[in-house]
Amino acid sequence: MEFLHRRGPYASAPAADLVLLDLNLPRRMAGKVLADMKADSAFGSIPVVVLTSSKAEEDVAKAYALHANCYVTKPVACKG
Fold first, then answer.
1. What is the pLDDT of residue 26?
2. Which end is more exposed in the chain, N or C (fewer Cβ atoms within 10 Å of the end residue's Cβ)?
3. Which residues contact 18 (CB under 8 A, 6 or more apart)?
4. Domains (range + CATH), the chain
5. What CA–CA distance (Å, rounded) separates 12 from 47?
């Protein structure tokens, strides 16, 4: 969110045109980030693509309920 708001070390960052959001963020719940973005008039129109390894129907449904624009399941590498 600091990057989107262009605060602190991100003050000179370009404005976001698209956000790729992983559901498995290390320190913050991705659902909270998505909800905060879509509730903020400055960011609500920025498309958000949820990019994750989760195929769980509840994750897909939650992402779209929070107004994600797209949900993409990334491939999981197989060791073989």
1. 74
2. C
3. 46, 47, 48, 49
4. 2-73 (3.40.50.2300)
5. 21
Distance of CA 62 to the CA centre of its chain: 12
Q: What pLDDT, on a 0 to 100 scale, did the predictor assign at position 80?
A: 59
Rounded CA separation 35/54 (Å): 19
Tokens describing residue 69: 């624009």
The answer to whether 23 and 52 are in contact (CB under 8 A) is yes
pLDDT at residue 78, as a whole number: 67
Q: What DSSP string describes 16-57?
A: PS-EEE-S--SSS-HHHHHHHHHHSTTTTTS-EEEEES---H
Q: Is 75 helix (H, G, I), strand (E, B) or coil?
A: coil
